[in-house]
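Forwarding these from the shared drive since the link keeps breaking.
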Amino acid sequence: MDEQKNRFRLRRFGRRQITEDLSEARRATLLKKRAVDAEKRFKAHILQEKEAEKVQRIGLADSIWTDIYHHLLTMGWAVFLVWSVVIYIGINLFFALLYLGLGAHVTGARPGHINDLFFFSVQTFSTVGYGVMAPVGGAANTICLIEVYMGIMVNALVTGAVFARFARPRARVLFSSKAVISCEHGTPALCIRIANCRRSALLSVDVELSLSRLVMGENGHPVRRFEPMQLQQSHIPLLRFAFVLGHVIDASSPLSEHEPGLPSDDEAEVMVTVTGIDEATGQSMLARASYRFEHVDHGHRFVDIVDVREGGKLSVDFRRFHDTEEEVLWKDEDGQAG
């Protein structure tokens, strides 16, 4: 009898142990899947030039009416022109239907013809009259009063929007397509070339370099961290042509933990931001770029693009701006390139 009880206990507790083992395994699998899913989401959270519009913002009002001025500045010219034409035609069509519906009398316009009333609305809205059609009566003159006032307001807003789009500061800063690891006084350094593409100089240019990487948090969720990277010269008083940014990879550098030139498991990325003042307009400008580790050439340097011609005139060949060449960095005791 006791032997049967012991067997029953063994089977019972054995099943419980198996169940607990399965629960632990299932929990570990779920945590791993959750971490992988979160990592996939966070991998997309990297500074890229053409991916920002692909982000879906849920629970945030992002219609054109919530921030109309910003939308007018950032939308493309084709979209801006299409929207302005649609609104212009829509307003004039609305007033033409209003003239027709209220029975307003307009001299020179055929009664009941929407085409004549539409073009009369266009002339009134733009405050341009040719002396052929004119409002008659209280209803027609009241509608004209409202339309003229709206036309003045809309024309002022559209003129301001067009001017703001043209006057919006745009930085014409060119970044090298790749970063390079070259030798600076016997020490490896990460180098990125930038250039000012405008004829006017950039004043008081400040450059920030940082390493963005994915770090697994205590709760199993990846967290994006940004680590500053010290530049040899982060402030440039005057940027007229091109300049090479240098970050020495020493023991204090965040890059000392990585092997540049190879893809990284933590999705590391070097991010650079440039701010300055345009000499011609006096406006502040901002430019940015990012480099994944596969976009870093190890043991290379940028080719020279500045040359002095006859008469002491400088020549900058931007056709070779992105070109690099191999460089002997340093050698170890065996004479192999390191």
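-- next protein --
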Amino acid sequence: MSGEYELSSANMQMAIITALENANATCPDNQSFVPQSILWQRIAEPEGGPVLEGDEKERMYRCFLAALVGKKNSVALFESIEDPETSEIRWRLRPQTPESAAMYLSKGDKPLVRQEEPPQQIEELQKTLVSLRRQANKLESDNHQYAMIIDRIKRTASPEVRKNFEFFESLYSFIEQFDHSMSDIEKHVKAIGKKIDKLEIDI
């Protein structure tokens, strides 16, 4: 694990969704627009999390912008307005409708669902997909945070502690390789068993 581990675009979208939901937690309609600067601050400086700096922060900011406007499903997830006086851009989660659900479930120019499907079915499928993606992306986001924290600990730790980290990583690698070897052995044993069964049938 290293500091070069980056959030994927999908994972960043999940982080943005969570930040918008948290920002609007006290609003009755949960649909207030959040200034982009505040939204970015919530992403880059999570409470209790590591503070990003330099190139690492710049890479994450590019990923942040790409997740908002650069992905095929960005328009289905996020809605923006521009303040005419300050030119400040504000964001919120796009209200979920059959139309936005169809956008979310599309790939390129071809929808993944038939247009004649009932709106209720589209909404249910969309909610299921969002829920599954949230769960998967949250795990990846947590792993990202843990990786950054561990990497920072390793950088500031004493040589003895770093040596313990290296030993743990080598041991973990050995366990993974051993697990793969055992899986291969199990496959071979099953294959031999099938051959023996076939011979007994032929006899």
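Confidence is low (pLDDT under 50) at residues 1-6, 103-117. Residues 159-202 form the longest helix (44 residues).

- D.
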